[in-house]
Amino acid sequence: MTLEKDHMQTMALLPWYVNETLDGRDAELVLRHLAECDACRDERDRLYQLQDLVQETAAPDTGYKRSFEHVMARIDAAERDSRSLRDAEEFAQRRGFLPIGIAASVLVAVVAAGSFLQNLGTADQSSGEEYETLSSDALTAGASQRMELGFVNPIPAATLRQALIETDSNIVSGPDPQGNYIVEVMVPGGIDNADYLTRIQKIEGVERARFVEN
Amino acid sequence: MSIHHLTTRRGSEDAEDLELLKRVAAKDKVAFERLYARFYPRLTRYLSRMMRRPDLVEEVVSDTLFVVWQKADGFQGRSKVSTWITGIAYLKGIKALDKLKTQPEQHAGELDDNEPVPETHDFIQKIGLEEWLVSGLSQISADQRSVIELTYFSGHSYQEIADIMQCPVNTIKTRMFHARRRLAKLLPVLAQGAESSNTLEEFLQSESGELEK
Fold first, then answer.
1. DSSP string, A89-157
2. What pLDDT is recorded for position A67?
3. Are residues B136 and B203 in the same domain?
4. What residues of chain A lie within 8 A of the CB of B102, using their CB?
5. Rounded to whole angstroms, what are the CA distances from B24 to A137, B29, B65, B74, B88?
6. CB of B178 within 8 A of CB of B144?
7. A71 contacts chain B (CB < 8 A)
8. Less Cβ crowding at N or C end of chain A, within 10 Å?
């Protein structure tokens, strides 16, 4: 019975005997059993062949630079967005007007959502896949424009902070005495201004939105 | 414990990785590039083999290393740095595959070892062993491919693989068993071992009390 159990344990452990990561009692058991079992020695030899084969297969292209630069762009964008939000909140707190701080959060969320809409407008429609990642590709089309945004009062507290990581948009100034902000947005190519404005105005919390001159 | 107080006795490679990760946790971008250059090839290789979707691999690798940048200060030293990073890559890769609803990835539990597989011996002679392996790996699950790759290419222990894939060690052994058995039906040099190991599954089940393919 013990021999049969040792045989089964050895069979299960052989892949890690072959890759030389067994230690302690596992290694002792396998070595002892291999000395007395032809079947396990044969299986070990077959697994060595499998390991050789796996290790011989070609590695893909491994140039990391382009990928690294892409990730650094995401990191830089995330840091800029984080600073924008922090600055807006600090500004609002200095003025002792908390709802404006919340407005700033919603504002940045609006900008983020605008950017999201833009990505929808420019996405490659041919793939048909639902795969998505944290990545956001660099903006390749569209025009930078300024927009004045005002918010309902009281402002809904819900924000899309996570979307900040995905965007690269900036608050230009604000709030003015009426609580309006000027932001810079990238209107995607292929979407006209009126349509874009309509989408922004549908976002909860937005009361006023209009394009202004740069 | 803060990452900055961690030390390692897991070899010089892990010590170098840990030093880089500490600097990454302090937002040192030069260290991040070095860590990136170090891990990009191996993650690309691992995910290419596991996912079999070259169009997605680069994005999953960059997502993985983006998470490393964000979460480096949360590393607690319970495993090697490479195990921790590969674990992130595994989860990202599986999540990406799960999102491909138009082409669902077959999971280990859905595969049937008794299902007939294509007769490939003649084919092997024509295309060579490397192509055979690619073909053979396409007929096992992503989880099984992951175990094969992490064992035979990356050289991880079964405990490390269990850490990476966040499951019990007997699940890893069972996945390896099924991968071996299925590959054995396709590769002549492995064929003799396939039938003799039929009772291994029962043994693994009795050891762990689980039934997972």
1. HHHHHHTT-HHHHHHHHHHHHHHHHHHHHHHHHHS-SSS------S--PPP-S-EEEEEEEEE-SSPP-
2. 92
3. yes
4. 128-130
5. 24, 7, 11, 11, 16
6. yes
7. yes
8. N
Chain B contact for A194, CB < 8 A? no
The pTM assigned to this predicted structure is 0.63
Helices A65-94 + B54-71 axis angle, to 10: 40
* pLDDT tens digits for range B127-168: 567 777 888 888 899 999 999 999 999 999 999 999 999 999
Residues of B in contact with A55 (CB under 8 A): 152-153
Can you give the residue ranges of every domain in chain A? 2-56, 78-212
Q: Identify the domain boundary among B56, B73, B98.
A: B98
- What confidence tier does A127 reach under pLDDT thresholds 50, 70, 90? very low
Contact A133 B155 (CB under 8 A): no
| B103 in any annotated domain | no
ipTM, interface predicted TM-score of the complex: 0.78
One-letter identity of residue B33:
E
What's the pLDDT at A160?
39
Cis before A99 (ω within 30): no
Q: Pick from B98, B120, B139: which residue ends a domain?
A: B98
Q: Residues of A numbered 128-147 whose beta carbons fall under 8 angstroms of chain B's beta carbons: which are they?
A: 128-135
Cβ pair B161, B150 in contact under 8 A = yes
**Size of the A and B interface in Cβ pairs below 8 Å:** 133
Q: What pLDDT is stored for residue A30 in this prediction? A: 96
Q: What type of residue is B69?
A: W
Is the CB of residue B143 less than 8 Å from the CB of residue B175? Answer: yes
Looking at the structure of chain B, the number of domains it has is 2
Higher pLDDT, A45 or A96: A45
pLDDT (tens digit per residue) in A7-50: 999 999 999 999 999 989 999 999 999 999 999 999 999 899 88
Q: Alpha carbon of B67 to those of A48, A101, A119, B63: distances in Å?
A: 35, 29, 22, 6
Tokens 């092997």, residue located: B124
Report whether B83 contacts B13 (CB < 8 A): no
Asked if residue B213 is part of any domain, the answer here is no
Q: Is the pLDDT reported for residue A165 higher than 70?
A: no
Beta strand extents in B101-150 (DSSP E only): none
How many Å lie between the alpha carbon of B151 and the closest alpha carbon of chain A?
Answer: 7
Whether B79 is covered by a domain: the verdict is: yes
Domain extent at residue B178:
108-208
User: Of B13, B19, B82, nearest to B3 (Cα)?
Assistant: B19
